[in-house]
Amino acid sequence: MLDDKTVEKEKTNPDTSASEKQKVEIEGVEGTINNKNDNFYSKEKGDWANAIHTYILSNLEMFLKTSPFANSLQNYEWWQMNYNYHTIFRGYMPYLAYIESAEYYAYYHPYQHTLECHRMIYAYQHYMFGIVYDEKKKALYYVYAIPGKKTRADQPYEGKTGFTHWRPSKQENNVDAFGYWLLHIDAITGKVTNPLAETAF
Predict the structure, then answer these.
(1) Is there a single domain that holds both residue 22 and residue 58?
(2) What domain range includes position 2?
(3) What does the pLDDT look like over 132-154, one tens digit per residue?
């Protein structure tokens, strides 16, 4: 009989399972722990990315699909997200924390950091959400596009959180032109990436 603190490792028959398991007996309770991360949403199987994409598409059915740029970006699809309780304060779309810069609070006053993008979204009463696809219609990136001008004052968090590319909505490309600051999120990892060139001032 194993004492309460004994943990005995055992491997299952390779013919029946490739996973390494542990047999645990703690305080008289015996159970099995699977060391391999092979749950339904495992990154290896890609199920997490598919589940997120399905969730996103189901939400986007309620929003207006649009073309915000005169010179369209290839393989980009866009939806206009109007400023309201559901799209902002309920965190309706995934990765909304990147807009609020929740992971970069050290750059800003703790009561100021959530307001940077909201200032521009509120001023124009909308933002854009985009999906970038590959040639097989598989999602590569999710994109948040914050309205504003090509100025430091309008660039969210001065580009520190990933809003590094500005694109004009119309043909003109000057300091008074209206456009959007883009932030790209890798559809698999959920991390910020920069597939487009950084905008120079």
Answers:
(1) no
(2) 1-36
(3) 999 999 999 999 999 999 999 99
Contact 101, 108 (CB under 8 A): yes
What is the spatial distance between Cα 4 and Cα 28, in angstroms, rounded to a whole number? Answer: 6
Element at 53 (helix H, strand E):
helix 47-60
Exposure string over 123-161, b if 16+ CB within 10 A, otherwise e: eeebbbbbbbeeeeeebbbbbbbbbbbbeeebbbbebeb
Number of domains forming the structure of the chain:
2
pLDDT, position 148: 94
pTM of the model: 0.70
**Shared-domain flag, residues 76 and 31:** no
- The secondary structure of residue 78, as a DSSP letter, is E
Q: Residues 145-197: pLDDT tens digits? A: 999 999 999 999 889 889 999 999 976 666 678 999 999 999 999 999 999 99
Q: Are residues 32 and 53 in the same domain?
A: no
